[in-house]
Design goal:
Helices cover 79% and strands 2% of the residues. It is an all-alpha fold. Strand 1 and strand 2 form a beta hairpin. The N and C termini lie close together (10 Å).
Length: 461
């Protein structure tokens, strides 16, 4: 791969803002699905949480094929005047937005049970396994083409996390304020309002993707991979890549913790604490913590201590906070929000730098193998994240069913207490496992990342 294109405008704030808008667009559909889909299909469509969780989990096995296929398509595509990765944002922003909107169709609530399950499965697979894959993998791979500087890539990772946080703020804080109505003194999700919300967020996603397309510049030439596809060699390279295996394990476990937190928030606040407004405050507080604490400090702390070192330590901190919350069992929802927010900072540091860690893995593979495969490696990582999402959905749905959550028992005291316990136990176990994966599997400490960057710079002179 050639060095950085000197004729392109220098890396700057336009790139960071544009990359931020890309993940803003992603999460308008991703967070909506992970936070509200199970609640929507349980309370509005009358589908068991266990069934919804199984559908979400089963869809991820399809991703084993679609993600890697898309990674190969991206690696083998030829650069255009707009770059190698950016054109996919313009091509696929419409389909991913439409598919997300179709998931939340409350007008079908009176259809037969089998039809509703089939509708959920088809629209969810179209959204997540096909259209979201075809836009997210090029978007994630694009960071390597925007800049070759490790510090600038860390800045892109930070701004990507800011975009995700802003999307989480808009969705997590705004949606409960609009989506719930009061029935017999209890907050109940409105199906018609959720359909409108999904439509608005789909339009917002398209706008954000187009802003990303127009603001970001690909300045590092990435040529098409013209080598004949050798599936056996590709699989061997992937399964012997310890850095990739480490980040995959950490990603799956991070999603288990993070989406477990987000998914349970849709139940613990309206059901255990009887306050949908508290869910809004919680989302607002955790988003502010990400923007005020994690985003400004992550790059600086990672530069001083290393990304691996920062991430493992902060995750262990989150584990301690959730264990204390489980023992204390705060009766006041705002005390629970305080625990939740402090713990969220723990996973927030890792979530802020993780995208830069992927480019470190790509660099490490190029140093060892002499071939750069941004799309394929990012696709495998993306699939791992989706597996984490699927495991979280299946686990959350199954555990909710286990504690007795079903129609007519949403506010039973034993059920709601079980929901509270799950809201602490799920992320505590997940964050502990993340820290162990980073410490004992992932090998890219601060000194090795710096050595790889220096070696690649030497090769490209």
């Amino acid at each position: 791969m050639a060095g950085q294109n000197r004729s392109a405008q220098p890396f700057g704030m336009k790139d960071k803002l544009g990359y931020m808008f890309g993940d803003f667009g992603n999460d308008f559909t991703f967070i909506l699905s992970s936070s509200f889909m199970m609640k929507f299909y349980a309370d509005v469509m009358g589908i068991s949480t266990g069934v919804t969780g199984m559908v979400m989990m089963a869809a991820r096995f399809i991703d084993a094929f679609t993600d890697v296929t898309m990674g190969q398509i991206v690696d083998r595509s030829k650069p255009t005047k707009d770059g190698k990765f950016k054109p996919w944002l313009k091509r696929m922003c419409g389909p991913v937005a439409i598919a997300s909107f179709l998931i939340f169709q409350s007008g079908l609530a009176n259809m037969p049970y089998g039809f509703k399950v089939a509708w959920m499965a088809v629209t969810y697979i179209l959204w997540g396994s096909i259209f979201y894959t075809s836009i997210n993998i090029p978007y994630g791979s694009m960071a390597s083409a925007v800049t070759s500087d490790p510090n600038e890539r860390a800045q892109l990772s930070t701004w990507r996390t800011i975009g995700a946080t802003l999307a989480g703020l808009a969705i997590g804080a705004g949606t409960p304020l609009v989506a719930y109505v009061t029935v017999d003194g209890n907050p109940v999700l409105s199906g018609s309002r959720m359909t409108i919300i999904a439509g608005v967020f789909s339009v917002c996603a398209i706008v954000c993707y187009l802003l990303c397309f127009n603001l970001v510049t690909e300045r590092v030439p990435v040529q098409a991979n013209s080598q004949k596809l050798d599936v056996g060699k590709m699989l061997k390279d992937l399964v012997t890549n310890r850095a990739l295996l480490g980040i995959i394990a950490a990603a799956i476990l991070l999603l288990l913790a993070m989406l477990g937190m987000q998914g349970m928030a849709g139940f613990v606040y309206p059901n255990f604490y009887r306050s949908a407004q508290a869910q809004t405050v919680s989302s607002l507080a955790s988003s502010i913590a990400m923007l005020v604490i994690c985003a400004p400090l992550a790059s600086k702390l990672a530069g001083k201590f290393g990304k691996k070192e920062l991430s493992s330590g902060s995750c262990l901190f989150g584990v301690v906070v959730f264990i204390i919350c489980l023992v204390v069992k705060p009766a006041d929802p705002y005390m629970y929000i305080a625990f939740f927010t402090v713990a969220y900072i723990g996973l927030g540091f890792f979530n802020t730098v993780i995208w830069a860690m992927i480019t470190d893995v790509i660099d490490d593979a190029e140093v060892r193998n002499g071939v750069r495969e941004d799309g394929t490696i990012y696709a495998v990582y993306s699939f791992a994240r989706k597996m984490g999402q699927a495991l979280s959905s299946g686990m959350t749905g199954g555990l909710l069913a286990f504690v007795g959550y079903r129609e007519g028992h949403e506010f039973d005291p034993d059920v709601t207490l079980g929901i509270f316990k799950l809201s602490c136990i799920i992320p505590a176990i997940g964050l502990a496992a993340v820290a162990l994966a980073l410490l004992f599997i992932y090998p890219l400490n601060k000194s090795r990342v710096e050595a790889n960057a220096a070696e690649l710079q030497r090769r490209r002179k």
